[in-house]
Amino acid sequence: MNVLIVEDEELAVRKLRKLVTEIDPDLTIQGVAGSIEDAVSWLKDHAAPDLIFMDIELADGQSFEIFNQVEVKSHVIFTTSYDEYMMPAFRINSIDYLLKPILKDDLKRSLEKLHHLRPGNNSRQAANPSEPIDIKKLLGKLQDVCKPADHGYVHQFLAKQGQKMLSVEADAIMYFYDDGQSSCFRTRNGQQYQLHYNMDELACLLDPEQFYRISETMIVAQHGVEKVQTYPGSRLALILRPSFGNEVIVNAGQTANFRNWLSR
């Protein structure tokens, strides 16, 4: 059985090679791609492998983008740092997942599952091993687990911190802001995370009883406002917790509405 590894960390590649060889010597590592670009190029130039181990977070973006650029006919096992709360979203089509750091027993179970899906076994996937992965469905499921059942407001967010993706309760978020490259938020303990939503989308998703958009680039939570001070030009200056670092100003046209919101 031929295998492609899509992973940008050399140490992770070496470890995965070692585990695969120990568990199933019949598996052949045909190639390694360290980026979205490399993976797309490899898949276009080679026959589809039987299996792809695919890290989600690559140096040039999320590996989901690979599915938008080339048809993936192989079975896929994602290797990921998503927290376990998000894992049920990956149980679609022939997708499986391994939570990093990869453990030998977990890898063994995933490979055993794959063997059951291959031709000669009585399963729907085995009858059609090249069934394409519905990546839009996967992304939809990842967002669905963060959606509430009431009012359409989001109470949990799928966010990124370094190479990890995890879910964060909205109640733990003190403010959202645009850093010029992406939307971010900070939590009670000062941790910073990145989001895939822009500020306009966040303004629609957040409960207006708890969050207020004070500018094009910032949304604050009531519990994130530590102090309000007067500011020249009939404006307000906010002291946030944790400290934001830059001046946070509420323009004159919003001061009355902001005071009313804050006093609820």
TrEMBL record:
InterPro entries linked: CheY-like_superfamily, LytR-like, LytTR_DNA-bd_dom, Sig_transdc_resp-reg_receiver
A Pfam entry, by short name: Response_reg
Record keywords, A-Z: Phosphoprotein
Naturally occurring in which organism (per UniProt): Dyadobacter flavalbus
Sequence intervals crossing the membrane: none
Domain (Response regulatory) ranges: 2-115
Name of the molecule in the record: Response regulator transcription factor
Keyword RNA-binding: no
UniProt KW Ribosomal protein keyword: no
Gene Ontology MF: a single term: phosphorelay response regulator activity
Entry-linked Gene3D superfamilies: 3.40.50.2300, LytTr DNA-binding domain
UniProt lineage: Bacteria, Pseudomonadati, Bacteroidota, Cytophagia, Cytophagales
Modified residues (4-aspartylphosphate): 55
